[in-house]
Write a sequence for this structure.
């Protein structure tokens, strides 16, 4: 489990049901267009007047699905993101972001023409103060609402709510968003109430972007944390898990938390991570009810015993197969 959490945090974790908050109004979604102006540049879609980018139609691959995915038209993630939006910003040069208001990773400045060096260091070689700063930054990310993005908590056909205008989107914190993007891309295809969800496809691990995909997630988290900290040089460190062999050398209270002295499955109360909660724990409910995210449980170090979580989910290996390795997974079932 810890190795996986670390892969997520440090070393390695896309289709996204997350959208800019300003785009998911009933009108915005019905228009199919999400082309916003950069902050401070009103009425300038995608910053086009200053050459930052332009609003373009998205063309998704129209070829039929392969035989492993027999459910054409049933899953919002097919031909992503066409179900939600078919016009978005395309940014030029060193500009990036949903409104071209950001710089590409590694650039900064008003015109995004200043290079910044982002040094990815070995977490074991950081000083005590650097380790503390890193863990505190992660904790801040876990608590800070993402400034721009919200997540859909229902599938497209229900996303307008029962009255057609109560949008089914929620805020999410920066760290949880990072977990969420991974989860959403690998989750099963909901086929309707009472029907078993289709788990025979994984839009990420079995997709063409596999090799670079976890890296992209980490870059996204790093970029969001840079903005949160207002420090374009902030870098996630790396962990060489081979060094510790079979012991978890970063499971110490100055890094990812030692074992609790009271509860073998728990994290030491001296660690900030003892306060963390797992999001979307009831993955089974998503599969059967079509809700996407509905509970929170404490993070634990090893296999969760039934009843450890206040809700009536059952930690089934099948569920875990698909969420494997992410903080979403009941711990220990990695
Ligand atoms: C884009 O999406 C909107 C809203 O769903 C739809 O009305 C429009 O026909 C779509 N345009 C194209 C070219 O698919
Ligand atoms: C990005 O910025 C660098 C540094 O100023 C510049 O050399 C480079 O041409 C820019 N890239 C693009 C595509 O504009
Ligand atoms: C979501 O976050 C935004 C920005 O922080 C805030 O303005 C809004 O009130 C929040 N919405 C909810 C439902 O908490």
């Amino acid at each position: 489990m810890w190795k996986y959490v670390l892969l997520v945090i440090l070393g390695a974790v896309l289709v996204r049901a997350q959208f800019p908050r300003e785009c998911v109004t009933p009108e915005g979604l019905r228009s199919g267009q999400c082309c916003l102006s950069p902050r401070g540049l009103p009425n300038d879609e995608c910053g086009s007047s200053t050459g930052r980018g332009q609003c373009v139609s998205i063309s998704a691959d129209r070829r039929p699905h392969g035989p492993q995915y027999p459910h054409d038209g049933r899953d919002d993630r097919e031909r992503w993101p066409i179900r939600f939006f078919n016009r978005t910003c395309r940014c030029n040069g060193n500009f990036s972001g949903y409104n071209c208001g950001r710089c590409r990773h590694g650039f900064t400045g008003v015109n995004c023409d200043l290079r910044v060096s982002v040094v990815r260091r070995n977490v074991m070689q950081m000083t005590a103060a650097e380790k503390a700063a890193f863990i505190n930054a992660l904790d801040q990310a876990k608590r800070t609402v993402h400034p721009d993005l919200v997540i859909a908590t229902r599938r497209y056909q229900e996303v307008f709510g029962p009255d057609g205008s109560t949008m089914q989107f929620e805020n999410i914190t920066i760290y949880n968003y990072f977990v969420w993007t991974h989860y959403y891309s690998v989750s099963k295809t909901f086929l309707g109430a009472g029907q078993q969800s289709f788990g025979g496809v994984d839009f990420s691990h079995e997709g063409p972007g596999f090799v670079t995909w976890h890296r992209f997630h980490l870059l996204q988290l790093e970029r969001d944390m840079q903005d949160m900290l207002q420090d374009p040089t902030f870098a996630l460190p790396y962990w060489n898990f081979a060094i510790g062999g079979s012991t978890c050398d970063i499971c110490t209270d100055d890094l990812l938390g030692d074992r609790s002295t009271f509860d073998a499955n728990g994290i030491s109360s001296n660690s900030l991570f003892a306060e963390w909660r797992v999001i979307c724990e009831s993955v089974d409910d998503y599969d059967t009810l079509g809700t996407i995210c509905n509970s929170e449980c404490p993070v634990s170090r090893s296999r969760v015993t039934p009843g450890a979580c206040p809700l009536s989910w059952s930690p089934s290996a099948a569920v875990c197969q698909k969420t494997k390795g992410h903080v979403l997974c009941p711990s220990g079932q990695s």
Notes: Confidence is low (pLDDT under 50) at residues 1-16, 302-334. Helices lie at 2-11, 26-31, 128-143, 174-186, 210-229, 283-289, 317-323.
